């Protein structure tokens, strides 16, 4: 991303269909947000950075948020704000 002139804070990865909700920050500064699973039956706790069984056993990823335990969630929200903090637009997507 950086080689193509897109600095951290200008590009975010948003994903779904994982088994837990989280916000992760790569050492390069790029961020990923995950909506988690739609229902509790498919949810499970994620492995934190530094966990030997995780995809980041050396704890290089910073994780400001991770589900405390398995939970579903059938909604994600995107909001646009102006420079005073007023909400200009909000889109809420719920499970079909």
Task: Spell out the key features of this protein.
mainly beta; 6 strands
State the distance separating the first and last CA atoms: 33 Å
The biggest beta sheet is recorded as: 4 strands, mixed
Query: What is the domain tally?
Result: 1
**Spatial order of the strands forming the largest sheet:** 1-3-2-4
Runs with pLDDT <50, length 5+? none
What would your notes on this structure say?
- By secondary structure, the chain is an all-beta fold.
- The chain has strands at 12-15, 22-25, 31-34, 62-66, 75-81, 87-94.
- The strands form two sheets. A four-stranded mixed sheet has the order 1-3-2-4, with no helix packed on it. Strands 5-6 form a two-stranded antiparallel ribbon.
- It has one domain.
Summarize the structure.
This protein has no helices and six strands.
Task: Give the helix/strand layout.
Layout: E1 12-15, E2 22-25, E3 31-34, E4 62-66, E5 75-81, E6 87-94
Parallel strand pairs: 1-3
Antiparallel strand pairs: 2-3, 2-4, 5-6
